Amino acid sequence: MLQAFIVEDEQFAREELKYLLTETGDIEIIGDSETMHEALWDINDLQPDVVFLDIELAKGNGMELAKQFIHMKKQPMIVFATAYDEYALEAFNLDAVDYIVKPIDEKRLRKTVDKLLTHAQLHSDQQMQKSTQPQGTKTIPAKDGDRMIIVQADEIYYIGTENRQTFIKTAHHKYESDLLLYQLIEKLGEDFLQVHRGYIVNVKYVTAMEPWFNRAYNLFLKDGSKVPVSRSFAKNVMQKLGFK
């Protein structure tokens, strides 16, 4: 069952929508409001799954309210329920799940609820897939000459830059990448650590760390590679490897 919040400044319309949604058997109304300010506060606090929004409010505008949802801890799904049909395009630009024109028809509302249930299930499946994704399944796009290839993250020993070009080093190959280091570190898992302004290392393949000069270090990897550790990253690297 989905939890819903209603923003509607006309009492009769608000009570009617409450009744119709409750009658579907798939929606629980956990709050309602007449004003934009009050609604913003309550929605952020209650964290409903979906908000049913009128557009022309006595105090505020439903479109402006919907734009604030992106800043919330839990972004609710949006359904606009309004007497005006000219805002539909703008509504869908805000990723609204549906747009209902008053007076609300019971059968039309049922279709909206079905859309919401489908949308919520897809989101739940995506979250489940992310949480159960095994380590090592992450991939990185790369180039081998004219060929576009996919490199498995657990095959990567380290990533570096030279001549303003990112490269990916595996045990036996060196590939180019169009991604920048900060983009790659966001895509990779916990095994990857930035050790230098121009290098990211897979800590699984580190075999040794030795001092170099001026409080910098070198890392040695299983394939014989040597990667520099700048002094600004040294403390974090040593902690990650358990040396400190």
Please tell me about this protein's structure:
There is one protein chain. The protein has 244 residues and is of the alpha/beta class. The protein contains seven helices and 17 strands. The protein has helices at 11-23, 36-46, 62-67, 88-93, 106-132, 181-187, 231-241; strands at 2-7, 27-33, 50-53, 56-57, 60-61, 77-82, 98-101, 139-144, 147-152, 156-162, 165-170, 174-177, 192-196, 199-202, 206-211, 217-221, 226-229. The protein has a five-stranded parallel sheet with strand order 2-1-3-6-7, sandwiched between helices. A five-stranded antiparallel sheet has the order 12-11-10-14-13.
List keywords for this structure.
244 residues; 5-stranded parallel beta sheet; elongated
What is this entry, summarized?
The chain has 244 residues and is of the alpha/beta class. The protein contains seven helices and 17 strands.
Lateral strand order in the biggest sheet: 2-1-3-6-7
What is the first-to-last residue Cα distance?
Answer: 50 Å
What gross morphology would you assign?
Answer: elongated
Low-confidence stretches: none
Proportion of helical residues: 25-40%
Overall number of strands: 17
The proportion of residues in beta strands is 25-35%
The ordered H/E elements are EHEHEEEHEHEHEEEEEHEEEEEH
What's the alpha carbon Rg, rounded to whole Å? Answer: 26 Å
Structural class: alpha/beta
Total of helices:
7
Largest sheet: 5 strands, parallel
Mean pLDDT score, rounded? 89
